[in-house]
Amino acid sequence: MDDVRAVLDAVGSSGAVLLGSLDGCSMAALYAATYPERTRAIALFHPITNFPQSETETFRAELAALRERWGTQEYCDELLSWNAPSLYESEQERLWFANWLRVGASPAVAHAMNRAWSETDLIDVLPAVRVPTLVLYRKCYYEPFALDFAKRIPSALAMRISCPDPWGIFLSPEVPDEIDRFVAGESAPDVPDTVLATLLFTDIVASTERAAALGDRAWRELLDRHHALVRRELTRFRGEEKDTAGDGFFATFDGPARAIRCAQSVVDGVRDIGLDVRAGVHTGECEIHEGKVAGIAVSIGARVAAQARPGEVLVSQTVKDLVAGSGLEFGERGEHELKGVSGTWGLYSVGG
Fold it and tell me: 286, 295, 314: which is closest to 198 by C-alpha?
């Protein structure tokens, strides 16, 4: 998503129509929810909300075999026979497909991308997509996934296109014209009053006791060092400070992985000045009022932080689901009831 934003910045685009195919659909949907003011519309070919089979032993075995067999003609032929039977009949197409896979990704990268895609879960994110959305699908095993995806986005339009093959958007020649017609019939979205954001809350542990032990002047000097360190890390990881209440910070990010790494840097950094902080990270749809962020997602983020232990970065299930493939590891902290928020929430400690 950062790459998309950087490219659109470079070409001076203030409003783009994004086309995502298969795993690219997740990226397009996240961009549209995070930057609705810069997205005219999105068109998605065979999107998937999540992979229900990703936890099965069979899938794990297939994923492990992918790394060993990637790029071999035998493996490529198997993939093509499942995903594009119309191309499999041609030896020339089989050779092209195998070369396309080898040129496109190394075995390690292919394994990482497929693992990330299979572990990504957008259930909590899709309702935050408020731009015109066209979901394209074919009559194949992707159909129920695509229709489920479309139902989760307000006012999304689902359209069946030609060709029964699960893979290869280029095998449906009508796609460009359908996207043109869809975009032409949609008015430009209004300035959004909601946006998908990642929220970071930090809080100094036992601050009252430390202040009493140090005295007002020494505590103020220590607090100033703490604030300077936190603000330095927010700048480094592109966070935006929203509020500072006493010894705690509230900041927003346009990506959950950066928020987590910022929180880790803050936790590690303040130890050097003799402080412990707890941090909580949550991603959700937020309301925007005169530059201020509000809504239930903000309350959830604050409650997640309140559950964190000294020196711990705690995240919600939503955040964990969105950073698949980032290299971050998590330890389960169980189901929790968050004050003022309905239901129970799965929480995870960063780093296990």
Answer: 286
Which distant-in-sequence residues (6+ apart) come within 8 Å of 221 by Cβ? Answer: none
Percentage of the chain exceeding pLDDT 90: 71
pLDDT tens digits for range 86-131: 999 999 999 999 999 999 999 999 998 888 888 889 998 999 999 9
pTM for the predicted model, two decimal places: 0.83
Question: Where do the DSSP E strands lie in the chain?
Answer: 16-21, 39-45, 133-137, 157-160, 194-204, 240-245, 248-253, 277-289, 292-294, 313-316, 330-337, 344-350
Class level of CATH domain 2-50+120-184: alpha beta
Please answer whether residues 129 and 32 qualify as being in contact, where contact means their C-beta atoms are separated by less than 8 angstroms.
yes
Cβ–Cβ under 8 Å, residues 262 and 269? no
Identify the CA nearest to 198 among candidates 122, 254, 124, 142: 254
CA nearest 205: which of 264, 281, 267? 267
> 148 in helix, strand or coil?
helix
| Calpha distance 276→249 (Å, rounded) | 14
**In the chain, where the domains are located:** 2-50+120-184, 57-116, 194-350
Question: Which residue in the block uniquely carries the two structure tokens 């036992």?
Answer: 206
To the nearest 10 degrees (0 to 180), the angle between helices 216-236 and 256-271 is 150
Contacts 24+ apart (CB under 8 A), 340-347: 340/299, 340/303, 341/296, 341/299, 341/300, 341/303, 345/300, 345/304, 345/316, 345/317, 346/316, 346/317, 346/320, 347/304, 347/307, 347/314, 347/315, 347/316, 347/317
Tokens at residue 5, please?
């934003």
> Rounded to the nearest 5 degrees, what angle is found at the Cα of 224, between the Cα atoms of 220 and 226?
115
Overall fold of domain 194-350:
Alpha-Beta Plaits (3.30.70)
